[in-house]
Specification:
Its main location: membrane. The chain crosses the membrane at residues 7-29, 77-96, 108-127, 139-160, 181-203, 260-279. It is a single chain. Helix content is 67%, strand content 0%. The chain has 13 helices and no strands.
């Protein structure tokens, strides 16, 4: 078999792609290096992709100084799993209904759905509504307000619009009802877009801390990892302000605000990075297959 000749273009392309990889990975590697570096040494600057003086002290400071982090981590996992499952169920069912050409109110409900992407009731009406519904300091406050997202429904509907009508019609002829068609035909064929939207939902649930701050501060059992990390971050920023104004000094061997911030970033990012590779192969497929009408 004849070897393919390496051209100048191939070399230039290889160098360019290596540069892209370096530029893409450098910020994350830099954050990781700072989070694993000695706090006193970090103040000297000049850290790049590996720690000069390796230490776990920054992570020990975070986990050792907050007994709630473990339970908060469990709550974050719980809300992410439950919120993603319920969100994908609600979104797929609504998307399937709107994708049916024989649905009489298709245009009306589609219009109402799209309007929500441009017009919002605002934070105060939302707060008052959740309070009146009795969701304050309730686990359901993490689930119900985020149950449906117009963008996710539209993405799923666009994908389902490309499923041949002949499949559902033949299933009806064989005696299948809408529920059977939805679970046995539409859902299996829509796995790429379901995986894509599941990633959107999981990332949103995992990263959300503001709803805990607004609606669940009164119940310590509902505190999430992101909320606890945000409180630690606020404390480090206050410490940073004291240091800048000369009211405090760094002590050798202790952590500093920058080290804590970088360690928090790693803690918040790694769980999602562990999930993403399993869904990545569906990601592009799920977004592009429903984008073009056949």
């Amino acid at each position: 078999m004849k070897k393919q000749k390496v051209t100048a273009f191939d070399i230039v392309l290889l160098v360019f792609m290596v540069g892209v990889v370096v530029v893409t990975l450098y910020p994350f590697l830099n954050i990781l290096a700072i989070s694993l570096n000695d706090a006193t040494d970090t103040t000297r600057g000049g850290l790049h992709i590996y720690p000069r003086e390796f230490t776990w002290a920054n992570y020990s400071q975070i986990f050792g100084g907050n007994d709630r982090l473990l339970s908060a981590f469990g709550m974050s996992v719980l809300r992410t799993v439950v919120g993603t499952i319920t969100g994908i169920l609600a979104s797929t069912m609504l998307a399937y209904t709107l994708s049916r050409r024989d649905f009489v109110f298709n245009n009306l409900f589609s219009f109402i759905l799209v309007i929500t992407m441009f017009i919002s009731g605002g934070l105060i009406p939302e707060f008052l509504l959740i309070r009146e519904l009795g969701l304050m300091n309730n686990f359901l406050v993490y689930i119900l307000p985020l149950l449906l997202n117009a963008f996710n429904v539209i993405v799923i509907r666009s994908f389902m619009d490309n499923i041949p009508m002949a499949l559902t019609e033949s299933a009806k002829i064989d005696g299948a009802n809408d529920f059977t068609i939805f679970w046995k035909i539409v859902i299996p064929l829509s796995l790429p877009v379901i995986a894509t939207v599941s990633l959107f939902l999981a990332v949103g649930q995992w990263n959300n801390w503001f709803d805990t701050y607004l609606y669940a501060r009164g119940n310590a059992n509902l505190s999430t990892l992101q909320f606890e990390l945000m409180k630690i971050l606020d404390n480090t920023q206050l410490s940073s302000g004291d240091i800048t104004s000369g009211n405090a000094e760094y002590v050798a061997g202790q952590t500093n605000p920058q080290s804590i911030q970088m360690a928090i970033t790693i803690i918040a990012t790694v769980p999602i990075l562990m999930v993403y590779p399993f869904l990545q192969r569906y990601f592009v497929t799920g977004l592009t297959l429903g984008a073009v009408k056949s």
